[in-house]
Amino acid sequence: MQHARPLPGFLVQRYHGWRATTWSENSAWYRRLAEEGQRPRAMVISCCDSRVHVTSIFGADQGEFFIHRNIANLVPPHAPDGQQHGTSAAIEYAVNALKVAHLIVVGHSRCGGVQGCHDMCSGKAPELEQASSFVGRWMDLLRPGYERVKDLPEDEQLTALEKQAVLISLENLMTFPFVASAVESGDMTLHGLWNDIGEGRLEQYDPKVGRFVPI
Amino acid sequence: MQHARPLPGFLVQRYHGWRATTWSENSAWYRRLAEEGQRPRAMVISCCDSRVHVTSIFGADQGEFFIHRNIANLVPPHAPDGQQHGTSAAIEYAVNALKVAHLIVVGHSRCGGVQGCHDMCSGKAPELEQASSFVGRWMDLLRPGYERVKDLPEDEQLTALEKQAVLISLENLMTFPFVASAVESGDMTLHGLWNDIGEGRLEQYDPKVGRFVPI
Amino acid sequence: MQHARPLPGFLVQRYHGWRATTWSENSAWYRRLAEEGQRPRAMVISCCDSRVHVTSIFGADQGEFFIHRNIANLVPPHAPDGQQHGTSAAIEYAVNALKVAHLIVVGHSRCGGVQGCHDMCSGKAPELEQASSFVGRWMDLLRPGYERVKDLPEDEQLTALEKQAVLISLENLMTFPFVASAVESGDMTLHGLWNDIGEGRLEQYDPKVGRFVPI
Amino acid sequence: MQHARPLPGFLVQRYHGWRATTWSENSAWYRRLAEEGQRPRAMVISCCDSRVHVTSIFGADQGEFFIHRNIANLVPPHAPDGQQHGTSAAIEYAVNALKVAHLIVVGHSRCGGVQGCHDMCSGKAPELEQASSFVGRWMDLLRPGYERVKDLPEDEQLTALEKQAVLISLENLMTFPFVASAVESGDMTLHGLWNDIGEGRLEQYDPKVGRFVPI
Fold first, then answer.
1. How many structural domains comprise chain B?
2. Do C164 and C68 share a domain, yes or no?
3. Shared domain check, D79 and D42
4. Which of A53, C98, C191, D199 has CA 20 to 30 A from C149's CA?
5. pLDDT digit string (tens) for D134-182?
6. What pLDDT, in 10s, does the model give residues B154-170?
7. Nearest CB partner across the interface for D59, out of B5, B6, B13
8. Residues sharing a CB contact under 8 Å with residue B148, sequence separation 6 or more, in sequence order
9. Are D17 and D46 found together in one domain?
10. Keywords assigned by UniProt (chains A, B, C, D) (predicted)?
């Protein structure tokens, strides 16, 4: 692989700083986690967005959260078709192998993927409709959400669609037999969150009132 | 979505603590990131494993890294077939929309996904061969790596396969026209890392010597 | 003391979060408790086990419970021999100095200390019989309990022994003259609880029926 | 055990509230902890004082901390004499059976036990000198600390003695061969903290400067 390049110096420097401090102060625990394996309490599905780090928000210890991050924190429906489904693989591993107690989907404000979906569905981004657009095809998962929000006042649609990304993921999660089974037996609980990145506010979906409410 | 449950109390408490400290102390920056959008310098592709948090290793600031996490930090080859490819969508967004300057793939020791691939390829895990196994099908991506390591001494194979997961991902990245183009024009560089989670050691692939060397 | 090390960063972060929220919201009360001293209503004796936090179960306010935690929530018999008795010191302080109104012993399921006692008494853990085994000598306190449960069906013995740990502690408490006196004068009441940690169920000893009953 | 009494109604009520909320929302995790056993990252030794709850300060999840609480957070020196040593048993279990990565001693301001030690050592509490005083004999462990602080200005002595309770405990911990061995091999780290309960401030002992410094 002749294209690999040396890591930029500022990252090398920070890594050495981390190893001399965080790793060094926690080495006993890192070693034990390495030897005994992880036993995370929860799986988190959140966005790749550089502004949303759930480890920071939840003061996560090493070993606490199994984290999958993709564009717009989306979960596709169950489709055991022999194709490659990275998100489904992560969920299968978390639920069946790690037996996590909670599965938490975290959406957020100003999501570029959700914006793209909105542009595509409202006809403003024909390039996303092409078969070759990976982002477009991925955001197809959120099309049912667009149908639910398109009649809202225009300035409410994006936030509503970001929250739909969380809800549709939770709905799709329940199409996985092993997820439905773990939820129904009480072995695992589902949680839907939405983070306002500017205000640092966290809301969670409350099925009793049918909407997201501040925590 | 009637299955959503309230967030466990200890996470609620930690979130409020985060908001009163980390968010509060950085609110000007969070707000600016919200208004102006993210402009991450690098995309990182790493594993979902709860023991590998690249934000910690690299002291990442909010807004610095666009992070995709999947099982075994794998990238599939370019396949514009109109299907859903979450990893490819994340790469496309990072390279074409965000124009990141670096694309860093981070593998690690004691990887459960890589272990599963090794078990599957060596005939010890027939259940992973089934079409319905999401983990099995996802780990198909690493089969070529197994071919390259299967004749090594047995106690070296797993680590070697973990490193192959990084190299094969880098190779597959170059099959994406927009990645190859950005690499060839010098707009983006590729990097392959492997983290020993117990020892906190980071190694990077050096094409001059054809192997991973400590940083 | 040259071996002291800095606190791991995730705990530093969580502490700052606590101070900015819980402490800050309760600072008037914390300050008053600091100035006027504690006046807890009850003493609780429970196990060190990380899965049993009575402050959580009883929604304890700061200042409410004086809590001693040791292996298997055991109380030794009164022995004023001039030696160091940490549990007896805690009881003496709670009863004579703080004049608590209730003394509550809380046992629990899956107790590692009780399991060790059972292994030792049934001949399966000879290493615990050695004079140098602190756990073994501490669990000697529960040997009389083993005699009472050893003829039960095998799958009932551990739970029965966990409950004996509570009952023997209550019996030993009554050998302390100041405890007996406070109980007899009505200044303090004794309570025996057992917590099923998996099911979150709490049972209390009811002398009328001579066994633990659900609360 | 005919002296056991029913739990006061307000505690019954709070327990039911806890079970309907905290337990219910976390039942999957509680059940898993029950089945698989605890794997706490750290042992904490803190005071019985009702005003110091480390689970609150550190936003502890169930299963994170193995907690021993006694009067004045004291650790006696290693004494394998076949007698009952509750604190030593807890330490032995945490280090040898649970293999915790950190052992954290937490002292605090306004400590009644430390005040008693100071009164006793300065001749103001002759009743604590009696062989039958459990608190007096327990606080004998801190006499060496009194010698180190008795020449300080009078208004500094109590705080200094509270901090000595932490340091002497750390020193005594190192007399346990299994503690010394784990510390020297890097398998466990020691930490000394002191909490100002009124101000909610946390300080840690820094061996480089030879005193406690704010965190």
1. 2
2. yes
3. yes
4. C191
5. 999 999 999 999 999 999 999 999 999 999 999 999 999 999 999 999 9
6. 999 999 999 999 999 99
7. B13
8. B160, B164
9. no
10. Lyase, Metal-binding, Zinc
